[in-house]
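Chapter summary example.
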Amino acid sequence: MRPDDSWPLACGTAFKEWAGVCEALSDGRQSLILRKGGIAEGPNGFVPEHRLFWLYPTHIHELEQGLRFPRDQALVSDAPSNVVAVRTLVETGPIGWVDRLERLIELEDFHVWNEATVERRFHYRKPGLWVLGVRVYRRAEPWLVRLTPEHAGCKTWVPLDPPLETDGVTPVLGDQESHRVMDHIRSTLKLER
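The structure predicted for these 193 residues follows.
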């Protein structure tokens, strides 16, 4: 059974993210995604264009991760080197562009980036970061996705072919806790409910 009947039966889009951040999202220590944009995303940079997507753990730029918790720094996967273990489905909630660093500091309880990483990414090219509040769902057993040329490089969105079934995922945070977190993010971003 899918957690939300309005979801598609399968999702063919994945979001590439640092493996340590994927782990934090998957175990409930993170409830938002911070993003500047990828090299291959064109002149307008990152655009939060999908409501539902799988997390695609990556080790690209892993040494630059700068996460607050050492256990998140260099996670090793049991999967063979030609596949990626995909187990986490994400549904976007509140989304906003933050152009004041102090507002990001108010959200530090909801992500695992360290202060230096937040500042560095915030100031890269032009000041600001996208903040995506997310509801996270996890499968007990991961899908093993074979690497393809479409998955390579510094891009945010990658296709999954065939799309992965959304059935069998369970929420990482309960409804009440998820609503509390999304309300806090919405309030910090100064968004309407």
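To summarize the output: The two ends are 28 Å apart (CA to CA).
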